[in-house]
Amino acid sequence: ISFTASSSNIGGLVGINYGNINNCFATGDMDGLYFGGGLVGRNEGQIEKCYSTGTVSGSAVGGLVGNNWHGYIYDCYATDNVQGDMDGGFAGGLVGSNQYGNIFRSYSTGKVAGFHAGGLLGAEDYGNDYHCFWDVDKSQISIACGYSYYGYSGITGKSTEDMKKDIASKKSEAKLNERLQKITIVNDIIDVGNDT
Q1: 156 has which bridge partners?
Q2: Cα–Cα nearest to 21, from 44, 3, 48
Q3: What's the rounded Cα separation, in Å, for the pair 62 and 48?
Q4: Residues of the chain with pLDDT > 70: what percent?
Q5: Span 78-93, pLDDT tens digits
Q6: CA 162 to chain centre
Q7: pLDDT tens across 137-161, in order?
């Protein structure tokens, strides 16, 4: 997709999410957004195992989500280049503004710039972040969050090389867990067969 917007809460896939979004992605270029995201404009639900690529620009924007309002984000990533307005806007590699939201095991790798710009978050307002990281080299920004109302933690800046190692390790771990789950299912079937 590619478009210029003139309203708020715009996303590459969904404008406002109140439900669950799983295993989805969006690619494209979006401009002129307020609370705009590469995947979701405003998240009040749950997003899991999703990603976005492309470019996002506007006054309060994030690579994946523009505004995470009491929402949950699990195991997601964004490679979008994010450009926030230079006259007071928020720009985050993953989320533009995390307000009372929770983000788990997610990361961003795109270039980020703006007045309040952060490698992962444009702004943090009573949000929580767990085991999240961003690519310091590609983002060309050394801080995790552009503006924090009450502080933040759980976000680590990493080099591109370290990011590649971590992502490869997580993929290997996921494959191992999938194999172990299949083995468990097969053993359960065998046990049921032996019981009959």
Answers
A1: 133
A2: 48
A3: 16
A4: 85
A5: 999 999 998 888 999 9
A6: 18
A7: 999 999 999 999 887 889 999 999 9
Query: Which are the contacts of 87, defined by CB distance < 8 A and separation ≥ 6?
Result: 115
Spell out the residues 6+ positions from residue 43 whose beta carbon is closer than 8 angstroms to its own. 16, 17, 37, 65, 67, 68, 69, 71, 73, 101
Residue 134 structure tokens: 């961003």
Q: Residue 33's closest CA among 80, 102, 72, 71?
A: 80
User: If you count them, how many residues does the chain have?
Assistant: 196
Two tokens at 120?
């992962």
What's this model's pTM, rounded to 2 decimal places? 0.86
State pLDDT tens for residues 54-108: 999 998 899 999 999 999 999 999 999 999 998 888 999 999 999 999 999 999 9
